[in-house]
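Budget justification, computational time. The allocation requested in the original proposal was used primarily to generate structure tokens for proteins on the priority list. As evidence of use, we reproduce two of the resulting records. The first is shown immediately below.
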Amino acid sequence: MSDQASYLFSTRTSQELAEKIALSYGQPLGKINIQHFSDGEFEPVLEQSVRGARVFLIASTFPPADNLLELLLMIDAAKRASAKNITVVIPYYGLARQDRKDKPRAPIGAKLVANLLTAAGATRIMTMDLHADQIQGFFEIPVDHLYASTIFVDYIQSLKLDNLTIASPDMGGAKRAKNYAGHLGADVVICYKERKKANVVEEMFLIGDVKDKNVILIDDMIDTAGTLCKAADILMEKGARSVRAMATHGVLSGKAYENIQNSKLQEVIVTDSIPLKEGLSTKIRALSCASLFADVMKSVHEHQSISDKFII
């Protein structure tokens, strides 16, 4: 049990999730006063003393870039206010797809963000389902990498589907699909896709049999939903009884909501790591990750193990 005080703060766009986390944690969110300047500049100021305390800063860093900048300014404010520990809780880690230099003269955005967070003063990172596990190695501070499988596996079991098959929409997610299937006692199939440019799938092929199976596509994020919807089409063409999709982060950009609504997907389940737009699709549902983060935050603050929070 820690006798150190703890305080929770949130960026503006993550306020809804942060309030759920705070409720589950058992402590209200701290107040932040944000001063705005006429040119668009802003300055977040912590409204209570955090001297010698552990500060949890809750912020998903989805676009626009102001979300990341607001978080960096809050970290700096906490550091200059003499907080002893600054734990940055990032349910969705933006720029994670830029995890390697895959073409000449390209940046590695995920590493740059790691450098910025550390330079600003973060002493610990807590995040969920990074696009690539190796991003943890971009940090020289502790990283708690949580998995939405602790939420999704329970939901899948509650569906009580027979002939269950877990599918990966691409080769990169094959390991994730295999791990889910292992926990659920299900078969695995993989959709192999070829891209000519980002967010556009040229061709897709299915590896495995889905005839008369209830299929659940598993991924870490849904962006335009083009890959997901194309995978659902192929699975149904190959004889699947039903197709659902589960992804940790509902980025849902472009025509994603429209694509999903008009697709053969029965339902799409995401977490609330990124807030959904209301009323755009009846097929999309969000499960909250608030309790998962609150439990891990408590364990970290009280110096307890968090091993039981990892399934996949």
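The second record produced under the same allocation is shown here.
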Amino acid sequence: MNQIKLFSGSSTRYLSELISDHFGHPLADYTLSKFSDGEMRPIFNESVRGTHTFLIQSTFAPAENLLELLLMIDCAKRASADYIAAVIPYFGYARQDRKDKPRVPISAKVIADMLVAAGAHRIMTMDFHADQLQGFFNIPVDHIQSDAIFIPYLQENVDLSSAVFASPDVGGVKRARKYAMYFDKDLVICDKYRKVANKVEKITVIGDVKDRDVILVDDLVDTAGTMCRAADELIKQGAKSVRAICTHAVLSGKAYENIEASQMLELIVTDTIPLRAKSSKIKVESVSKLFCHAMRNTYENRSLSALFLD
């Protein structure tokens, strides 16, 4: 079996070190040098010839994180790595997965093509904005599900006797329904209306939440506008409490202020993206152990299905 190498991009070092600790394998020596004008030049300071190489880097903003990963892939390819797996805990641009109006790009497809063209043999990521993004690639994609993290958290930390699961928008119904079916609970939908991106005009609650503990389920939280408006509307409709589970903590703009000012009890996220600030309402669960298991199973040619909850 080929030797294994784990490399971390500069933006995901905090997570890569945790993955490395669980793996029991040190991160390989890597330097990101820059020219005076800001151009990046990744350098592997040890041989990768003939190795099974994992490159760990989330592609959240700024776009330099994506560019660094693409250059790392090319670096590994030109250094004769035998197999290159791009481990992307948060896959940026995934929300732009279709033409929702004339004359706009399908950015997620562009990113997929770039990763393949750079030389990746495999993509490993968590909770695409839409499952069909896997079809944008002509190489294997390991699409890891965060329910393996959130379901145990809910079982251990939350009283689910009067719980109901909710989707903050119509597009996330499938995701919320999965939790509702797993716990044999009711499902509620928050139908939102927007005139422009990142600004919710109106939310309508479909379903009964009176005297219920509502758990909102989403794949990412950006400005937190939708999540907080949904939480406030659910409380207005008679919910006892509202908490949310959300994989990717993008948390841009006034997200932290919105969360603190909302009636949401807590927001549970993962560390696919590092938090920019602390909040008494935000709790972080690590994906490091789950990614470690997925990477090890891939390296050892074992199934990943055991890591997923039905």
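A brief technical remark on that second record: The mean pLDDT is 93.
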